[in-house]
Design brief:
Blueprint (H helix, E strand, L loop, with lengths): L6 E3 L2 E4 L2 E2 L2 E2 L1 E7 L4 E9 L8 H15 L4 E7 L3 H9 L3 E10 L2 E11 L1
Parallel strand pairs: 6-7
Antiparallel strand pairs: 1-2, 2-5, 3-4, 5-6, 7-9, 8-9
Length: 117
């Protein structure tokens, strides 16, 4: 698998890991304000899960945020995404806000996580 977070456009960081020359995941980091970056578009395709690439993507995005002198990184996720939540917690993120909303007749619990750098 190839991992490269060098694709930086206007202070944003994007990563696309490859498995057998096929994009098998993504991660992005965007600026919220002068001090805060937001982790976005985090996805690992099912066939690439369990090999540690999710943790490596998060680690590289956090390193990029530190290099750019951000003081924190936030992200939004859903309570039901247990695997992703486990990765965020392992990387040091903590839940800071929880909101419930109705979506297509189903209650959805969104969580904001934060990592202080």
């Amino acid at each position: 698998m190839h991992l490269d977070l060098k694709a930086i456009i206007r202070g944003r960081c994007y990563g696309l890991p490859e498995l057998d020359q096929t994009a098998s995941g993504s991660i992005g980091l965007t600026q919220v304000n002068e001090n805060t970056a937001q982790l976005r578009w985090f996805l690992i395709e099912p066939e690439a899960r369990g090999a540690g690439w999710g943790g490596k993507l998060i680690e590289q995005a956090v390193l990029f945020a530190k290099e750019k002198d951000y003081t924190s990184v936030i992200l939004w996720t859903n309570e039901s995404l247990i695997g992703a939540r486990r990765l965020y917690q392992s990387a040091g993120f903590e839940v800071k806000e929880v909101r419930k909303q109705m979506l297509s007749g189903q209650e959805l619990t969104e969580e904001q996580w934060e990592l202080v750098l």
